[in-house]
Amino acid sequence: MKKLLAITFIALAFLVLNEKSNSQTLYFCEGVTNDGYPQTESSVFNIGSDGGYVYVLVRLPYEIACRSVRFEVYRNGEYDNTIYVDTEKSWVWFWKKITFYNTGNFTIYAYDCFDYMLTSGSVKIQYR
The whole model's pTM is what? Predict the structure, then answer.
């Protein structure tokens, strides 16, 4: 019985970890490599009083199959704006350089052309 329980636990742990490594991910970073990986990823960024930008990178375990996606931006829990990103159907990652002019806690939701939420992430923007 203990062996069966241990094997079940290991199998479930493997499935959870495998699912996590293949999931859609949204990163906030200072740049994106040519291979689509975040540079200087963070959940907190400092901007000047005249604004500052952050790269928002989405990585997928599959091709997007859309010609555009949208980022819905919420600031402190309230809708702020929508940003559209042109994509190619075969892309498995894409990014957008977004300029922030206000401080706050921002949550960004990424939706594909079928209105399916791909992923989301949160970032804190504060003044220097």
Answer: 0.82
Task: Give SS3 for 12.
Answer: helix
Q: Into how many domains does the chain fold? A: 1
Q: Which residues contact residue 56 at a Cβ distance below 8 angstroms, ignoring those fewer than 6 apart?
A: 26, 27, 28, 71, 95, 96, 97, 98, 108, 121
- 16 lies in a domain? no
33-74 pLDDT tens trace: 999 999 999 999 999 999 999 999 999 999 999 999 999 999
Using CA atoms, how far apart are residues 50 and 39, in angstroms rounded to an integer? 23
How much is the pLDDT for 2? Answer: 61
CATH code, domain with 91: 2.60.40.1930
